[in-house]
Amino acid sequence: MTLQAEFQAVVLAAGRGSRMSEVTTGIPKCLLPIGPKPLVWYSLYKLQCAGFSDVIMIVLENEKSEIHSVLEKTNLDIKIDYVCVSEKDEDLGTAESLKLINDKLTSDVLVVSCDFVTDVDFKGVLDIFRMHNASVASLLVQPQPNEVFVVPGPKSKHKPERDLIGIDTQTNRLVFLASASDFETDFSLPTSLLKKHTHIKIYSNLIDSHVYVLKNWVVKYLKSEDSFTSIKGELLPHIIKKQLSKPPKPVNTNTSVINTGDNGDIFAFSKEDELDINIRNTSSYNDHTGDLKPTYHEDSIRCYAHIAPKENFGVRVNTLPSYWWINNKISEKWPQITGDRLEFVPVHPKADVKSNQVDNKCVIWEGAKLNEKTSFKNSIICSNTEVCSFSRVFNSIIMNNVTIKEKVAIENCIICDGATIEGGCQLKNCIVGSHHTVSEQSEHTNEVLTESDRLMEF
User: For the CA atoms of 172, 174, 180, 186, what is the dihedral angle to 10 degrees?
Assistant: First the structure.
């Protein structure tokens, strides 16, 4: 069986990027520039390398044409089936987005977030899913080493979100998942869980990649439940807890029953094939040691985690620090991400580069215009952006359709789509919002320069 026949791939790309709204206002989050490619390209490319020829991608309706136009130029071979979320439903959670395409999902599903950049092969999480005929398998990655980067914008101490993840180290069963912020000082685990899984290790430093493999029955169950909005925050913790539960006793067939309530019973969806059960019962294999309990403790609901090796990396690009970090590391990580299949091309052949001071750490996109007597170091200059003479750009990200006039100095900044920097400006550690104009001869440090009413408070 081919991978495409076994699994359907889904990319979630309808998020607004609310945790980094300073840079996502005015551009689809999935199109944020990461080195020479838009953010979502990295997820699509990993799926293509894994063997998928088709993918369902969920996007906002008013962003579809822009996303389609940008991805058409990236020469991906994978065929994208766009499913649109209407503007009135733009706040749909990840679980609600999956409900939208329920009728399209006829096999088991690999769900990937558009904001995950990694060199991890999806084979590991798919294999553990197959091996145990799992209900859910989740990909977890190790945290990156702490490095000091000055992130543009006001000085602040970023406090990363942490999850508490419980894994049975003997079997890789995922038995506990919660946000550390849900607990003030300590937390307890059910005695029944500790008796059932005697080798539990609680991790507080692993990163949930938002890459999930779901049994098809999980998708059908999701559709029957109106209460779930988030995959990670609600659906997964619910299913993980249900591993401790036992199916309700069969209804007495001699009793007249009008409604058995199967619609809300997860075990009505998770019923295993009788042949699979018989094969397992006649096999000498057992997934655990230390007791005489049957394989998998006879659980029909089974959740697993695959922890990527330490030498791999993965980052969720959903905050300003992570966005800044990956752009500083992308040229270094490129061979790992692409498996040396693609050459890193820092300067697009259709860029108009007249400057002779562009160092080898710069990335210049198609249509960018770098005039004479300009200087660039360790920066990304995106499509249709023009930098006029006597200006310099150091260690910065300049997005699409930006105009930088003469005698401008930009250092350690993010300049968003359509912005204009008038002549003589000096910007350091700043974020300039979408379509904002910075008046000439102005100087700014550690500021967010944007129309305040364009940003939403979260």
Answer: -80
